Amino acid sequence: MKLPPLYSEYARYYDVIYGRYLRQRVPRLVDFAVEVFGREAEREVRDVLDIACGTGGPTVELARRGFNVVGVDVSPAMIEIARRRAAEAGVDVCFEVMDMRELRFEEEFDAVTCFFTSINYNVADEDLQRTLRGVLRALRGGGVFVADAPNPLASEQWLRGVPSVWRVDEEGISILVIDAVSMSNVSGLIDWNRTLLISEGGVLRMVADGHRLRAYTAGELKLHARIAGFRRARVYGDMRVTEEEPTSARRLFLVAVK
Q1: How many domains does the chain have?
Q2: Residue 188: left if φ>0, alpha if ψ -120 to 50, beta else—which one?
């Protein structure tokens, strides 16, 4: 599998680009996940698998909260950064290079998490089913799966294809990010074309970074979970634990129980 540059040779810039997001949002995201563990899991959650863990932001935060955590990601470069992050935080996390579609665990975890839109990299139905079936095998009975995704019904800017430009200055590095995102309202496929202008140590470089994802509605996420074999599935919106369907939410959170 050929990985986008930001996940491979330029992985060290990932935490620079998303530094503020990781610092501010990850604790809230893990707060929500822990609340879901308590409300939805039918067993005590102690062992957690974080799939598509990237540089390990939520993975390390879960370990800080006292969970036994394993993190897996398809990118060796991202896993190496995650290992350094855990060491710097003084927490014991096992990280492995592994494609989320090819999970090799059998009833070893009480909960599985998948954050930061990673579930949407499953662009084909079979890809998503392989991932969900692997998650199901990894969970013990009564265990819970939590994954977040953008709500395509609240992503009209992607249908218009309006580009966005933003800049981050951190750790002596300045990065201008130019995003051009377009989504098909028929297939739900998302083409995320990103250009990075990186200034570091007096050197300016341009990096073209492209991603192909697929948007899923709340109904599609629940249906796929049930087809994969989960006993029950629901979708929360914007980290609000509510019974209401999150039709206007910006973010969807699939919660499925084995």
Answers
A1: 2
A2: left
